[in-house]
Amino acid sequence: MKINILFGTESGGGELTAEDIADSLSTLHETNIQNMSDADVKALDKDAFYLMICSTYGEGELPYSAQPFHAALLREKPDLSGLRYAMFGRGDSAYLKTYSRGSEIIDETLQALGGTRVGEYGRHDASDMSATDELAVTWANSVIENI
Amino acid sequence: MSILIIGGSLSGLRAAERLRGEGWAGAITVISAENHMPYNRPPLSKELLWGEDSPSDLEFELSPLVADIQWKLGVSATALNINEKRVELSNGESLTYEGLVIATGVKSRRLNAPGPQDGRVILRTLDDAVALKDKLKSGLKLVILGAGFIGCEVASTARKLGCEVDVVAMDEVAMQVPLGKMVGAEIQRRHEAEGVRFHMGVSIAELQGEGKVQQVVLTDGRKLEADLVLETIGSIPNTEWMANNNLDLANGVLCDEYLRAGGNAGVVVVGDVARFANPLFDAPPMRIEHWQTAIDTANYGARTLLSDLGHGNDELTPISVMPWFWSDQGETRMSSFGMLGLANRQEVLEGELTGECAIGYFRDDLPVGIVLVGLKEKSARYKRWLQKARDEYHASRE
Could you say which of 3.30.390.30, 3.30.470.20, 3.40.50.300, 3.40.50.2000 is the CATH number of the domain covering B331-397? Predict the structure, then answer.
């Protein structure tokens, strides 16, 4: 399967998560990693399955590398029907009202343009003392096995 | 069954949340010397001072988990008796507890120099910051004593507000204690480019003025005009109230590896006042005054306490933390992981010192920390680099 991993990040954690997932999936699948800031919203590949990784910054805002991607989606309004993706949000539940909000903004926008989210909504909570980097890898493998 | 938390700032709040989150249903009472519900301190030297944040913006949202806990604001602990499990309060109350969380933090060290008192200020609490904000007007002559985080952050903020800023410090360069000479010198250069004047290797010998401070006399005899003197010369742990319990209070409260005060079951120490060994860095017991460490110690301490009270489900693991801080000083955003003070060597790993860069801090050949100037998007990668280096070192010794 062709798997495109798109990440939006503020301090680089999302990029590491994308790399960890690619390392784990690349023996069985063709994987590509791209920063949302470099992605062309009109060239999203409907033959590929997307793993979206996005953190949250400030008071429930998008991280800086996701902002141009989000703005381009709103501006270009590409038809995303047929695009399938799974979403992984990185956040901190100590921020009660805005926890993982960044990923949800991307998710809502993709769905509004016709995209279909599948599988479990992954979350990494910085306030969860047991949450490790492995969490995202486990999530990605579970999503891919079940589609 | 009741748990008493002495100290109502970030660490006290997070401890309360963790206790409830792990299922503690008994009473929780928080005693806070300040008259405010818990608020976020880092903006006190930045966003609040330059007006971007109001005091209410700084209040932490309270989790529904802690909606039922009791708060006693404007009250401080005056005495502790660990044998009797009793705390005396400044309002005359005497409270007993089953479990105690010590989260009393630190206070500002003050300058001992003769002269008028009016015009000498500190920055530690929200009230301090609100009072300082009112004074920082364009043209104000501000003298800052001390060139650490708070001194340098306020220097930058005050320049932004149009104040004249002189920084006086005993060190050779700005930020020398937290960052070392090489990086400190570069940070000082950046502040100087913004018009901050540094007077290093000296302190303030005397303050002069009619009823209020008008000038300061430095220890080398030079004089500086001053409308206001901000003292940022470090902190003193709030431990006096814990005397006579056989605790080591030499610099904060000495904890065991589970953050128990002096190994006493049912008494844990969290936040700035806790002095604990950090095995990740082979560090002897130290206090770590960082925002994230306040949270990390609250989480560890709460678990230890629940275990001591017979409510813990997990086997305890000794505390081990990756200290982390950030500091915004004008256009310069710094972040760091690790324990820089353990280093005997520094090396620019990426970029140029005068621009955005990553500086590795090493003890001999082993990394003990990283400082990023800018390069924000690299911070997770360098944190992992440091964690991996430490883990491999420990694995190699087993």
Answer: 3.30.390.30
Q: Read off the pLDDT of residues B105-136 as tens digits, 9 standing for 90 and up.
A: 999 999 999 999 999 999 999 999 999 999 99
Tell me how close the Cα of A9 comes to any Cα of chain B, in angstroms.
Answer: 7
B237-292 pLDDT per residue, tens: 999 999 999 999 999 999 999 999 999 999 999 999 999 999 999 999 999 999 99
A2-146 fold: Rossmann fold (3.40.50)
CATH number listed for the domain at residues B110-231: 3.50.50.60
Give residue A130's pLDDT band: very low, low, confident or very high (50, 70, 90).
confident
Token pair for B290: 């960082």
Q: Is B379 on the interface with A (CB under 8 A)?
A: yes
Task: Tell me the per-residue pLDDT of B144-184, one tens digit each, with 9 for 90 and over.
Answer: 999 999 999 999 999 999 999 999 999 999 999 999 999 99
Angle at B380 between CA B377 and CA B382, to 5 degrees: 100
CA of B307, closest CA in chain A: separation in Å? 16
Among the four given CATH numbers 3.40.50.2300, 3.50.50.60, 3.90.550.10, 3.30.390.50, the one describing domain B2-42+60-106+236-308: 3.50.50.60
Asked if B388 reaches chain A (Cβ–Cβ under 8 Å), the answer is no
CA-based nearest residue in chain A for residue B297: A129
Nearest Cα of chain B lies from the Cα of A123 at a distance, in angstroms, of 17
Shortest Cα distance, chain A CAs vs residue B172, angstroms: 32
User: Does B320 contact A at CB distance below 8 Å?
Assistant: no
CA angle B261, B36, B236 (to 5 degrees): 40
- The residues of chain B that CATH labels 3.50.50.60 are 2-42+60-106+236-308, 110-231
B326-358 residue pLDDT tens: 999 999 999 999 999 999 999 999 999 999 999
- DSSP, collapsed to helix, strand or coil, labels residue B262 as coil
Question: Does the pLDDT value for residue B312 go beyond 90?
Answer: no
ipTM of the complex: 0.91
Whether residue B299 lies within 8 A of chain A, CB to CB, comes out as yes
Q: Find the angle CA(B295)-CA(B297)-CA(B303) to the nearest 5 degrees.
A: 105
Q: Which residue from B minimizes the CA distance to A65?
A: B377
pTM of the model: 0.94
For B63, which of A9, A16, A96 is closest by C-beta distance? A96
Inspect the interface and report whether the beta carbons of B378 and A13 lie closer than 8 Å: no
- pLDDT of res. B313: 67
Task: Using a pLDDT cut of 90, give the percent of chain B over it.
Answer: 98
Q: Chain A residues within 8 A (CB-CB) of chain B?
A: 9-13, 15-16, 65, 94-97, 127, 129
